[in-house]
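Limitations
The C-alpha coordinates in this dataset are predictions for the assembled complex, not deposited experimental models. Users should treat interface geometry with appropriate caution, especially where small molecules or nucleic acid strands are included. An illustrative entry is reproduced here so readers can see what is and is not provided.
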Amino acid sequence: MAKKASNYIGEFEEFVLLAILNQGDNAYGVTIHEALEEATGRSITIGSLYTTLSRLEDKGLVQSWVGEPTAERGGRAKKHYKVKGSAQSLLREAHAARQRLMSLETSGGVA
Amino acid sequence: MREDQVPCDNSIETIELVIREAYAEAHLDLSTKLGVIARRQTLAEIKAFAELSSAILEFQKGEASMTPLELKSLAQAAFAALKDTTIRPPFNAEYLLYLLLGNDERDALIGDLNERYRRIIGRFNKRHADIWYYKQVAGSLFPLVRRALLRIGALVWLGRILRRLIS
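Predicted assembly:
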Protein backbone atom coordinates (compact mmCIF):
# COMPACT_ATOMS: atom_id res chain seq x y z
CA MET A 1 0.00 0.00 0.00
CA ALA A 2 1.32 3.45 -0.94
CA LYS A 3 2.05 5.67 2.05
CA LYS A 4 0.20 8.98 2.18
CA ALA A 5 2.47 12.04 2.14
CA SER A 6 2.26 14.20 5.26
CA ASN A 7 1.53 17.89 4.58
CA TYR A 8 4.07 19.18 7.12
CA ILE A 9 7.84 18.98 7.15
CA GLY A 10 10.21 20.28 9.81
CA GLU A 11 13.32 22.34 9.16
CA PHE A 12 15.77 19.46 9.43
CA GLU A 13 13.53 17.28 7.24
CA GLU A 14 13.54 20.06 4.65
CA PHE A 15 17.36 20.21 4.75
CA VAL A 16 17.59 16.43 4.33
CA LEU A 17 15.21 16.46 1.35
CA LEU A 18 17.19 19.27 -0.29
CA ALA A 19 20.48 17.42 0.33
CA ILE A 20 19.05 14.28 -1.32
CA LEU A 21 17.85 16.32 -4.32
CA ASN A 22 21.26 17.97 -4.52
CA GLN A 23 23.10 14.63 -4.63
CA GLY A 24 20.97 13.21 -7.47
CA ASP A 25 21.65 9.53 -8.17
CA ASN A 26 24.49 9.42 -5.62
CA ALA A 27 22.34 10.17 -2.56
CA TYR A 28 23.19 7.78 0.28
CA GLY A 29 24.08 8.23 3.96
CA VAL A 30 27.66 9.51 3.57
CA THR A 31 26.97 12.00 0.76
CA ILE A 32 23.80 13.32 2.45
CA HIS A 33 25.64 13.62 5.80
CA GLU A 34 28.56 15.51 4.23
CA ALA A 35 26.26 17.81 2.24
CA LEU A 36 24.28 18.68 5.40
CA GLU A 37 27.40 19.37 7.47
CA GLU A 38 28.87 21.51 4.71
CA ALA A 39 25.67 23.49 4.11
CA THR A 40 24.71 24.08 7.75
CA GLY A 41 28.23 24.33 9.20
CA ARG A 42 27.08 22.13 12.09
CA SER A 43 28.21 18.71 13.20
CA ILE A 44 25.34 16.31 12.55
CA THR A 45 25.25 12.80 13.97
CA ILE A 46 24.52 9.90 11.69
CA GLY A 47 21.82 8.66 14.10
CA SER A 48 19.75 11.84 13.80
CA LEU A 49 20.12 11.70 10.01
CA TYR A 50 18.88 8.09 9.84
CA THR A 51 15.93 8.67 12.20
CA THR A 52 14.92 11.61 9.97
CA LEU A 53 15.34 9.53 6.83
CA SER A 54 13.17 6.75 8.26
CA ARG A 55 10.53 9.32 9.31
CA LEU A 56 10.53 10.78 5.79
CA GLU A 57 10.13 7.28 4.41
CA ASP A 58 7.18 6.65 6.76
CA LYS A 59 5.60 9.90 5.55
CA GLY A 60 5.99 8.67 1.96
CA LEU A 61 8.29 11.52 0.95
CA VAL A 62 11.40 9.50 0.06
CA GLN A 63 12.01 6.05 -1.29
CA SER A 64 15.07 3.91 -0.67
CA TRP A 65 16.80 0.89 -2.12
CA VAL A 66 19.82 -1.16 -1.12
CA GLY A 67 22.93 -1.05 -3.33
CA GLU A 68 25.97 -3.29 -3.67
CA PRO A 69 28.33 -3.92 -0.72
CA THR A 70 31.78 -2.32 -1.12
CA ALA A 71 35.18 -3.08 0.42
CA GLU A 72 35.71 0.43 1.84
CA ARG A 73 32.48 0.00 3.84
CA GLY A 74 33.68 -3.27 5.36
CA GLY A 75 31.51 -5.31 3.00
CA ARG A 76 28.31 -3.47 3.94
CA ALA A 77 25.76 -2.24 1.40
CA LYS A 78 24.76 1.37 0.76
CA LYS A 79 21.16 2.51 1.15
CA HIS A 80 20.29 4.95 -1.64
CA TYR A 81 17.55 7.56 -1.34
CA LYS A 82 15.36 9.41 -3.82
CA VAL A 83 12.88 12.22 -3.20
CA LYS A 84 9.34 11.52 -4.38
CA GLY A 85 7.28 14.01 -6.41
CA SER A 86 4.97 14.76 -3.47
CA ALA A 87 7.98 15.92 -1.43
CA GLN A 88 9.12 18.25 -4.18
CA SER A 89 5.77 20.08 -4.15
CA LEU A 90 5.97 20.29 -0.33
CA LEU A 91 9.43 21.82 -0.62
CA ARG A 92 8.17 24.38 -3.11
CA GLU A 93 5.29 25.27 -0.76
CA ALA A 94 7.66 25.64 2.20
CA HIS A 95 9.99 27.83 0.11
CA ALA A 96 7.07 30.02 -1.06
CA ALA A 97 5.80 30.40 2.53
CA ARG A 98 9.26 31.43 3.67
CA GLN A 99 9.53 34.01 0.88
CA ARG A 100 6.11 35.44 1.76
CA LEU A 101 7.20 35.81 5.38
CA MET A 102 10.49 37.40 4.31
CA SER A 103 8.65 39.95 2.15
CA LEU A 104 6.43 40.78 5.14
CA GLU A 105 9.55 41.39 7.20
CA THR A 106 11.26 43.62 4.58
CA SER A 107 8.09 45.68 4.00
CA GLY A 108 7.91 46.39 7.71
CA GLY A 109 4.90 44.15 8.36
CA VAL A 110 6.74 42.30 11.11
CA ALA A 111 7.91 44.24 14.11
CA MET B 1 64.73 -6.11 -1.97
CA ARG B 2 64.46 -3.46 -4.69
CA GLU B 3 62.59 -4.12 -7.94
CA ASP B 4 65.80 -4.51 -9.93
CA GLN B 5 66.94 -7.13 -7.40
CA VAL B 6 63.95 -9.46 -7.89
CA PRO B 7 65.32 -12.81 -9.16
CA CYS B 8 64.28 -13.78 -12.67
CA ASP B 9 63.99 -17.56 -12.20
CA ASN B 10 60.66 -19.25 -11.49
CA SER B 11 61.84 -21.53 -8.68
CA ILE B 12 59.74 -22.19 -5.57
CA GLU B 13 62.39 -20.39 -3.49
CA THR B 14 62.01 -17.26 -5.62
CA ILE B 15 58.21 -17.33 -5.31
CA GLU B 16 58.48 -17.75 -1.55
CA LEU B 17 61.02 -14.93 -1.32
CA VAL B 18 58.84 -12.61 -3.43
CA ILE B 19 55.69 -13.32 -1.38
CA ARG B 20 57.58 -12.88 1.92
CA GLU B 21 58.98 -9.55 0.74
CA ALA B 22 55.54 -8.28 -0.31
CA TYR B 23 54.12 -9.40 3.05
CA ALA B 24 56.87 -7.62 5.00
CA GLU B 25 56.49 -4.45 2.93
CA ALA B 26 52.74 -4.37 3.67
CA HIS B 27 53.59 -3.69 7.35
CA LEU B 28 50.51 -5.54 8.58
CA ASP B 29 50.05 -4.88 12.27
CA LEU B 30 48.93 -7.44 14.87
CA SER B 31 45.31 -6.26 14.84
CA THR B 32 45.20 -6.74 11.06
CA LYS B 33 46.57 -10.28 11.38
CA LEU B 34 44.09 -11.13 14.16
CA GLY B 35 41.31 -9.41 12.22
CA VAL B 36 41.77 -11.89 9.38
CA ILE B 37 40.71 -14.67 11.74
CA ALA B 38 37.84 -12.79 13.42
CA ARG B 39 35.99 -11.01 10.66
CA ARG B 40 34.12 -11.88 7.49
CA GLN B 41 36.11 -11.53 4.28
CA THR B 42 35.15 -8.93 1.73
CA LEU B 43 34.72 -9.61 -1.97
CA ALA B 44 37.72 -7.37 -2.85
CA GLU B 45 39.97 -9.32 -0.54
CA ILE B 46 38.76 -12.73 -1.75
CA LYS B 47 39.29 -11.64 -5.38
CA ALA B 48 42.80 -10.30 -4.68
CA PHE B 49 43.87 -13.53 -2.94
CA ALA B 50 42.19 -15.76 -5.53
CA GLU B 51 44.27 -14.07 -8.26
CA LEU B 52 47.44 -14.44 -6.18
CA SER B 53 46.71 -18.12 -5.44
CA SER B 54 46.13 -19.00 -9.08
CA ALA B 55 49.35 -17.16 -10.07
CA ILE B 56 51.33 -19.13 -7.45
CA LEU B 57 49.79 -22.40 -8.70
CA GLU B 58 50.87 -21.53 -12.24
CA PHE B 59 54.42 -20.99 -10.98
CA GLN B 60 54.39 -24.30 -9.14
CA LYS B 61 53.21 -26.14 -12.26
CA GLY B 62 55.87 -24.40 -14.36
CA GLU B 63 53.16 -22.70 -16.46
CA ALA B 64 53.75 -19.18 -15.23
CA SER B 65 52.43 -16.47 -17.52
CA MET B 66 54.08 -13.69 -15.49
CA THR B 67 57.53 -12.78 -14.20
CA PRO B 68 58.47 -12.91 -10.48
CA LEU B 69 58.34 -9.10 -10.50
CA GLU B 70 54.73 -9.20 -11.73
CA LEU B 71 53.94 -11.84 -9.09
CA LYS B 72 55.36 -9.51 -6.45
CA SER B 73 53.09 -6.68 -7.65
CA LEU B 74 50.11 -9.03 -7.43
CA ALA B 75 51.10 -10.05 -3.88
CA GLN B 76 51.52 -6.40 -2.90
CA ALA B 77 48.01 -5.63 -4.20
CA ALA B 78 46.57 -8.59 -2.27
CA PHE B 79 48.24 -7.56 1.00
CA ALA B 80 47.19 -3.94 0.45
CA ALA B 81 43.57 -5.14 0.04
CA LEU B 82 43.94 -7.17 3.23
CA LYS B 83 45.25 -4.17 5.12
CA ASP B 84 42.49 -1.92 3.76
CA THR B 85 39.64 -4.28 4.64
CA THR B 86 40.84 -5.06 8.16
CA ILE B 87 40.82 -1.48 9.50
CA ARG B 88 38.14 -1.79 12.16
CA PRO B 89 36.35 0.93 14.09
CA PRO B 90 36.03 0.65 17.91
CA PHE B 91 34.20 -2.60 18.58
CA ASN B 92 32.16 -1.43 21.61
CA ALA B 93 30.81 1.61 19.78
CA GLU B 94 29.85 -0.50 16.77
CA TYR B 95 28.17 -3.06 19.05
CA LEU B 96 26.02 -0.34 20.68
CA LEU B 97 24.68 0.64 17.27
CA TYR B 98 24.18 -3.03 16.44
CA LEU B 99 21.88 -3.35 19.48
CA LEU B 100 19.84 -0.25 18.68
CA LEU B 101 19.29 -0.73 14.97
CA GLY B 102 17.01 -3.00 13.01
CA ASN B 103 18.29 -5.26 10.24
CA ASP B 104 17.29 -2.87 7.47
CA GLU B 105 19.22 0.12 8.85
CA ARG B 106 22.14 -1.69 10.47
CA ASP B 107 24.22 -2.34 7.35
CA ALA B 108 23.55 1.09 5.86
CA LEU B 109 24.34 3.15 8.98
CA ILE B 110 27.36 1.16 10.18
CA GLY B 111 28.65 0.99 6.58
CA ASP B 112 28.38 4.79 6.28
CA LEU B 113 30.29 5.26 9.53
CA ASN B 114 32.96 2.78 8.37
CA GLU B 115 33.36 4.62 5.07
CA ARG B 116 33.92 8.00 6.73
CA TYR B 117 36.07 6.38 9.43
CA ARG B 118 38.51 5.12 6.78
CA ARG B 119 38.65 8.55 5.16
CA ILE B 120 39.51 10.14 8.50
CA ILE B 121 42.27 7.56 9.06
CA GLY B 122 43.66 8.43 5.63
CA ARG B 123 43.60 12.15 6.43
CA PHE B 124 44.64 12.05 10.11
CA ASN B 125 45.26 8.81 12.01
CA LYS B 126 43.44 5.95 13.76
CA ARG B 127 43.21 7.75 17.12
CA HIS B 128 41.45 10.75 15.57
CA ALA B 129 39.17 8.43 13.63
CA ASP B 130 38.30 6.51 16.84
CA ILE B 131 37.39 9.77 18.63
CA TRP B 132 35.20 10.82 15.69
CA TYR B 133 33.50 7.40 15.71
CA TYR B 134 32.78 7.51 19.46
CA LYS B 135 31.41 11.06 19.07
CA GLN B 136 29.07 9.94 16.28
CA VAL B 137 27.81 6.95 18.27
CA ALA B 138 27.34 8.96 21.49
CA GLY B 139 25.42 11.64 19.58
CA SER B 140 23.33 9.02 17.80
CA LEU B 141 22.19 7.29 21.00
CA PHE B 142 19.59 9.92 21.95
CA PRO B 143 17.67 10.02 18.63
CA LEU B 144 17.83 6.23 18.21
CA VAL B 145 16.74 5.45 21.80
CA ARG B 146 14.00 8.11 21.59
CA ARG B 147 12.68 6.56 18.38
CA ALA B 148 12.73 3.07 19.93
CA LEU B 149 10.82 4.34 23.01
CA LEU B 150 8.26 6.13 20.84
CA ARG B 151 7.66 2.91 18.92
CA ILE B 152 7.24 0.95 22.16
CA GLY B 153 4.90 3.68 23.47
CA ALA B 154 2.82 3.50 20.30
CA LEU B 155 2.52 -0.28 20.64
CA VAL B 156 1.44 -0.01 24.31
CA TRP B 157 -1.15 2.63 23.36
CA LEU B 158 -2.47 0.44 20.54
CA GLY B 159 -2.66 -2.53 22.94
CA ARG B 160 -4.73 -0.51 25.42
CA ILE B 161 -7.15 0.63 22.69
CA LEU B 162 -7.56 -2.97 21.48
CA ARG B 163 -8.16 -4.21 25.06
CA ARG B 164 -10.87 -1.58 25.56
CA LEU B 165 -12.52 -2.50 22.28
CA ILE B 166 -12.50 -6.22 23.14
CA SER B 167 -13.78 -5.73 26.72
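Some entries come with short summary sentences. For this one: Chain A touches chain B through 24 residues (CB under 8 Å).
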